[in-house]
Structure formats: structure tokens, C-alpha cells
Structure to design on (438 residues):
């Protein structure tokens, strides 16, 4: 444990020393991965389906604000959809307009989740996000998470039904439009997942804010269990066809990620908790103070041994 | 001479100004009523744009039926229905915006109060130099 804590201190020092480079590099990496995944999954427009275009866009993202990644990803998605068919682009545009105009006004801080979540879906680990957001953000982040789920399901529907969409003739514009809208609205799996994620975020947030020992650990366990129950219940009611093994594996991974987050952001030494009471003119205070687990990094001493006397 | 207390205080305040404080100071420049009315106005505007887009999508979706029934349709009735749905949906969205923004304003003011207290403390530290 001590070596882990020392490692954390090293990381902290390293980050504070080089954050001028780490932040842009992180944004670059995020944009690169997101755009590469979009190109690999959609890739209908050959002009932007190249590593050089992705590199240029990712470089641009590295020195722009974090949410610019979402705008870049949206532009890439819409261009690919436009290349596939104009109706796909119209529905996509409508979806993104609704998100940007109605929802992101409230949760501008964690909009980037919308770009990360579809990538996690591709990696089959989306269940990590609600636990992580419940631990690190506020319940408002459920809005961004919900939008991310909707974006993934929309793109998934398009890629699944690409042959059917291209088989329809040029004159079947209305049929194609209806087909896409129906596919998006009738997707019960998406709705169940949005509800499950929103409830999980709320539960994790509420429990982790309670004044109880090991609040973060209890919060993530409670969140994962609630998520599991809601998903299974959703499967029972709406027949969403969710993979139970996948959900359980994802939940275990969510717990692991939660523990890592707890180690970095909320590492408390509960056995040394102190309870104190005092008063001032206006209030009586019942204070419970839990110390953080800290270690000092050992200093490296370089001893020079030279043969010269 | 360098005062450690003053430097710690200034560093904390500078960090606040750079991060969370930036938004809070912008919000704090408004009176509560001004801030809320502006946000609700923005909400109504955004809601209206999205509503018209959704109506457009609905028309596109039911284009053929609408074209064949257009002469038998009760245009006044449909107009009234559309207006009612518009008022209700945009009204609900504006209400949600009002509640969220009021909460944001309250939090920003609370944080700014702490910030201004620190400013006063800093001022006092300079005076007692």
C-alpha cells in the first residue's frame, strides 16, 4: 500500500510539473481515439476517412477547450452520414441540435462524456461511466450520459442497417427518413439504458455524499447493484436482449475503476477519524474529521563515487 | 518582506478565479432577476427552435398523409393544437431552466461571498503590513 501511495505522490508531482504538456496531449489522444473510432465504424466519406485528417483535427482539439472534441466528433459523424444519405444526415443533425440547444446548456462541464461513451460502447465497457460520473460529478451529468447513449444507439442503428438504407432507391427518400426515425424512436434498449444510467448516477452521488465511513465504496457497490437490477428489470419488461454476462463483467470492471478513482481522489484513513464538538455565537458544530492517507515521497540522494581523490 | 499567509491566500484566490470562479464572477455580475430572465429567454429561444425543427421532422415523416388530407383538415384546430403543445412544452422547459439557473445563481453567489471575504482578508493583511 505504501508503495502505491508513493506512486500516487509521484504522479501528482509529475502532473503538476508537466501539466502544460499533459493536458494538450490528453486532449489530442482523446480526440484521436474518438475520431478514429468514428472513422472505423462509419467511414462513408472517403475524404475524411484518413489518419492524416484525424491527426489534423486531433491537433486542433489539443489546443482548443475540451468540449471542442465533441464538436469535431459531431462534424465527422454528420459528414459521414451525409455521404451515406441525406436523410441520415437530417436525422443526425436534428438529434445533435436537440442535444446542443436543450441539454448541453445545463451540463457544459461534462459534455465530453458524449464523445467518450460511444467509444466505451465499442470497447463493450459502457457500464463504467455512470459509476465514474456519480463519483466525480453531479447528477446533472446524467444528461450528458443519456445523450451519449442516444448517439451510440443512433450510429449503431445506421451501421447495422446500412445495406437496407443503400438498397432503397433515390426516390424512396420518405421511406428512408421514416425508417431511420422509427429505428431511433422504437429502440427500447436505448431507453432502458438511459434510465438505468441516470438512476445509477443519482444513487452513487447520493450515497457518496452521505456522512458514513467508506461512503465511496458503498456508493459504487450500491450503484452497480442498482444498475444491474434496473437493466435486468428492463430486459424483463421491454425485452431489450441485454447480455447478462456482459452486464456482470462490466459491473465488476466499473467497481475496479471506481476503486482506482477512490484511490486517487478520496483516499481517507477511517481508523483515525476524529469527532469534535465546539460552538461559536451562532452555531453549535458537530465535526467529524477524517484524515487523508498521505505519504511523503522519499528523496533520492545521488551519491557520486569517483575514483579521483 | 514576503508574507506566507498572504501568498497562500492569493494563490488560492487566483486558482479559484482561473477555474470555477470565472463562471461564478460572470454570473455574479447580474442581479438575480436579470440573470434568471436572460436564461429563461435563452431557454424559450432554444425551445422554440427545437420545437419548429421537430414539427418540420413530423411534417416530413407524415408528408404523404398530410398532402392527401390537407383539404379535409381542420386547419384552425390543428393550429390551436400545435400552439397548445408549443406553449406547454416550451413552458415546461423554461420552468426547468428557471429552477436549474436559480440553483446555479445561488451556488455562485455563495462561492463569491467566500471569495469576497478572502479579498477583504487580503486587504486587511496589506493594511497591517
Amino acid at each position: 500500500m505504501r508503495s502505491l501511495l508513493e506512486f500516487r505522490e509521484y504522479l501528482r508531482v509529475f502532473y503538476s510539473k508537466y501539466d502544460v504538456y499533459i493536458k494538450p496531449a490528453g486532449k489530442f489522444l482523446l480526440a484521436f481515439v474518438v475520431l478514429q473510432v468514428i472513422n472505423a465504424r462509419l467511414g462513408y466519406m472517403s475524404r475524411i476517412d484518413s489518419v492524416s485528417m484525424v491527426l489534423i483535427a486531433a491537433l486542433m482539439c489539443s489546443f482548443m477547450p475540451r468540449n471542442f472534441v465533441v464538436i469535431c466528433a459531431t462534424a465527422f459523424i454528420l459528414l459521414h452520414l451525409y455521404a451515406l444519405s441525406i436523410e441520415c444526415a437530417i436525422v443526425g443533425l436534428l438529434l445533435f441540435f436537440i442535444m446542443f440547444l436543450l441539454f448541453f446548456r445545463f451540463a457544459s462541464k461534462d459534455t465530453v462524456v458524449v464523445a467518450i461513451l460511444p467509444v466505451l460502447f465499442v470497447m463493450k465497457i459502457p457500464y463504467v461511466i455512470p459509476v465514474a460520473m456519480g463519483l466525480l460529478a453531479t447528477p446533472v451529468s446524467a444528461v450528458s450520459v443519456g445523450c451519449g447513449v442516444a448517439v451510440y444507439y443512433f450510429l449503431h442503428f445506421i451501421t447495422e442497417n446500412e445495406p437496407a438504407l443503400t438498397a432503397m432507391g433515390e426516390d424512396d427518400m420518405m421511406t428512408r427518413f421514416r425508417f431511420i426515425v422509427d429505428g431511433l424512436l422504437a429502440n427500447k434498449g436505448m431507453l432502458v439504458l438511459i434510465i438505468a444510467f441516470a438512476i445509477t448516477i443519482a444513487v452513487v452521488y447520493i450515497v457518496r455524499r452521505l456522512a458514513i465511513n467508506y461512503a465511496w465504496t458503498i456508493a459504487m457497490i450500491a450503484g452497480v447493484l442498482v444498475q444491474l437490477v434496473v437493466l435486468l428489470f428492463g430486459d424483463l419488461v421491454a425485452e431489450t436482449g441485454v447480455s447478462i454476462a456482459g452486464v456482470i463483467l462490466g459491473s465488476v470492471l466499473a467497481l475496479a475503476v471506481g476503486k482506482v478513482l477512490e484511490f486517487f481522489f478520496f483516499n481517507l484513513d477511517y481508523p483515525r477519524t476524529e469527532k469534535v464538538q465546539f460552538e461559536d455565537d451562532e452555531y453549535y458544530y458537530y465535526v467529524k474529521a477524517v484524515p487523508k492517507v498521505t505519504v511523503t515521497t522519499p528523496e533520492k540522494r545521488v551519491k557520486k563515487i569517483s575514483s579521483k581523490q | 518582506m514576503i508574507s506566507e499567509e498572504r501568498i497562500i491566500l492569493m494563490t488560492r484566490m487566483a486558482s479559484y478565479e482561473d477555474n470555477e470562479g470565472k463562471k461564478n464572477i460572470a454570473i455574479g455580475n447580474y442581479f438575480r432577476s436579470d440573470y434568471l430572465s436572460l436564461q429563461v429567454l435563452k431557454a424559450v429561444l432554444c425551445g422554440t427552435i427545437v420545437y419548429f425543427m421537430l414539427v418540420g421532422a413530423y411534417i416530413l415523416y407524415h408528408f404523404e398523409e398530410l398532402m392527401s388530407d390537407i383539404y379535409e383538415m381542420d386547419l384552425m384546430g390543428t393550429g390551436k393544437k400545435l400552439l397548445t403543445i408549443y406553449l406547454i412544452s416550451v413552458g415546461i422547459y423554461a420552468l426547468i431552466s428557471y429552477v436549474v439557473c436559480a440553483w446555479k445563481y445561488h451556488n455562485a453567489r455563495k462561492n463569491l461571498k467566500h471569495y469576497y471575504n478572502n479579498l477583504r482578508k487580503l486587504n486587511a493583511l496589506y493594511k497591517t503590513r
In short: The interface with chain A takes residues 42-43, 46-47, 49-50, 53-54, 57, 60-61, 63-64, 93, 97, 100 of chain B (CB under 8 Å). Chain B has a mean pLDDT of 85. The helical segments of chain B are 4-18, 20-28, 32-61, 63-69, 75-127.
